[in-house]
Each structure stands twice: as C-alpha cells, then as structure tokens.
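REVIEWER CHECKLIST
Item 1: Sequence provided? yes
Item 2: Single chain? yes
Item 3: Sequence as submitted:
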Amino acid sequence: MNLEFLQAVIFDGLFAAIAAIGFAVISNPPRKAIFVSALLAAIGHGLRFFLMKNTSLDIAAASFCAAFTIGMISILFAKVIRCPAEVFSFPSLLPMIPGMYAYKTVLSLVKFMQYANDETSATILVDIFRNGITTVFVLFALVIGAAIPMFIFHKQSFMMTRLLK
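Item 4: Structure as written out by the authors:
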C-alpha cells in the first residue's frame, strides 16, 4: 500500500463525511450526532473504497461490509451519545448510494426507447440489466448491512429509544 492510495482513501472518506453532514443536518439531530455521522461516513466509505481496490470484492459486497461496520459503530456511539443509532447511521449510508449506476440504468432505458428497432438494442438492454441489478444489489447490501447490527443489538437500540422518550 503506497502513499498515493492511502491519500485516495482519506480523500474518499473526507468527501463522504461532507456529504453525510449535509444529509444529517436535514433531520435536525443533536450537534454531536452530526459529527458522528461524518465520522461514520468517512470510515464506511473509506472502507468500501479500500475493499474494492485491494480485494476481489465487488461494489455490493464491499458496500455490505462497510454498512455492517457503520451499523456496529453506530450502536456503540448510540450508548455514548444517548441517541438512537439510526440518527447517525442512515445519513452515513446515504453517500454510498450508487447514483452513477442508477443514472446509467435510466439513461440506457431512454436509449432503448429511442432505438428499439435498431441492432444496438440488445447491447443497450444488457446495460439496463447490468446497471439496474448492480443498483438494486448495492441498495440491498446497504440496507441489510446496516440492519443486522440493529437486529443483533435490538435490546440496546430499543433501550436508547425508550430513554429518549
């Protein structure tokens, strides 16, 4: 692992943290939760970037590992900050939504509608399914990866919610 790669991982995490701050502010959480959201987004997005570049994991598997890590750390911070884990885990996951794959899916759908009778329609149809399935798998990986720690530590998560009421 060289210095340029480490710098790329840090920048990836930094940009994800900035996006997570923007997503967290929308829901008006406590100020401490905004900084935790930024930290979790930086850790999760940096981990996903690292796993995709240094291992044989694809984007869906790397997203699952990152979302699971975010979910586990958010349970720990929920106890410390006395705030439900969902308050800072969900804004931390939003920068990992595969927007480029969703965009390419819709763009390919528009192209398919324009060139339906052309010989390139089979190639466009393959692009629709490849990008669409990738989008769906990454979204499922994010949801399941973040939900598993909430289910494992349901009692701690539930107790935090009861204490806030």
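Item 5: Key structural point noted by reviewer: The mean pLDDT is 89.
Item 6: Recommendation: ____
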